[in-house]
C-alpha cells in the first residue's frame, strides 16, 4: 500500500528549500494547509463528529443570521462559506495558495506538539473524483461549475453516492479570504481523509518540530505574515499594537 511523503522540518530556510526541491518540475498550483497538531487528519469538522443534518444546521443558522448579514448568500454553497467563516461545522477545509500563510496557522499553539504543513496538488486530488478537464491541464472548478453541483447541501441529501473530496476555487468576496489567499476542498459523504485517497501522490506532509515553532513564527511575522495582515479587521488591531509595545 502506497503512502504519502513525510518530511521533518526544523527551520524556515529548510522548509523553503524542501518546497522548492519537491515542486520545481511541477507546473500546476500547490495549495497549503497548516494544522497545529501533527496527528490531525485532513477531515472537515462536520465529518469528525455526529451532528444534526446539514439541512437542520443550515436552517438554524439562516434563522439567526439572515438579519445580521449585509448581503444575502445566493445559494447553499455561499451559506456554507459563511458558516465556515464563523466556526460552524461544515464539509469544507480551508487551504491557502501561500505556504507562509498556512504555516502561520500551523504555529499558533506554543505547546509540546509538532505542527504540520500539508501541501496539496489540487488537480491530482480531483482526478480521484472524476474531475479532469482534458482541454486544460491544471483545471480547477469553481463552486459555480456543474461538476460540483453534487456536493451541495440539497444534492447530497438526495443521493446515496459517496464521492471523494474535491478541490474548488471560491470567489474571494471578503477581505479575510483575499488576505489569506483562500481556497477550499469540499468533502461529500465519504469520511476518508484527503491523505488516505488513492495512491497519495497528490499530498505531501511537512512536520514542523515542536521546538522550532516559536522561532519560525517570529521569522514569518518579520516577513509580514501577521494576525492583522491575515485578519484585516478592527478586532486585530489590539494584538498588532501589543506586539509594537504601544499597549500592554
UniProtKB/TrEMBL annotation:
Domain FRG, chain residue ranges per copy = 26-118
- Superkingdom of source: Bacteria
InterPro entries attached to this UniProt entry: FRG-dom
Pfam families of this UniProt entry? FRG
Q: Which SMART domains match?
A: FRG
Please give the name of this protein: FRG domain-containing protein
Species source reads: Aliarcobacter cryaerophilus
Q: What are the leading ranks of the lineage?
A: Bacteria, Pseudomonadati, Campylobacterota, Epsilonproteobacteria, Campylobacterales
